[in-house]
């Protein structure tokens, strides 16, 4: 006798099987215990749900949000794409723009990446050449630091992505550093 729903392994590079927390509809974007995907077919609460975890999909978003191509988004508890905020793992990248008033956005799911983004502003408080920036990450695999103002020396900033005692050291090149140089940072990792 054939089952009405196909049998799948619990995970592959393209999909995973989770227990439905509520009734799901086909095409719904859901987050179940940190696993995010698109529901492949309608299922009832408590049943096995097949989540597609790779690919391009149109997902719901808030009509007040303006999303641009390349923006990282996460799936909120209502199954809507939300602009990424500090400390939240991105679940998708926007492949299309979503103007104010739009209720859907075209995204590419990020199934295996799911890093944490730590971003903010800081400043050199002395004329020293480095400053420690506290981070929520335990591992950093990418970092961008950008001066918020241009000084006479057009200072270049960098960091080595090494986390020591909960902080990443940001350094600058200036021959005569300017006190109080502000900068923005984006650290990506886990």
Structure explained in plain terms:
- The protein is mostly beta strands.
- It folds into 2 domains: 15-109, Virus Head Decoration Protein, Chain: A (Beta Barrel), CATH 2.40.300; 116-189, Immunoglobulin-like, CATH 2.60.40.3940.
- The protein has no helices and 15 strands.
- The protein has a 5-stranded antiparallel β-sheet with strand order 5-9-8-6-7, with no helix packed on it. It has a 4-stranded antiparallel β-sheet with strand order 1-4-3-2, with no helix packed on it. It has a 3-stranded antiparallel β-sheet with strand order 10-15-12, with no helix packed on it.
- Strand 13 and strand 14 (167-172) form a beta hairpin.
- The termini are far apart.
How do the strands and helices of this protein lay out in sequence?
Elements: E1 15-19, E2 29-32, E3 35-39, E4 48-52, E5 56-60, E6 72-75, E7 81-83, E8 92-94, E9 104-109, E10 116-123, E11 130-134, E12 140-147, E13 157-164, E14 167-172, E15 182-189
Antiparallel strand pairs: 1-4, 2-3, 3-4, 5-9, 6-7, 6-8, 8-9, 10-15, 11-14, 12-15, 13-14
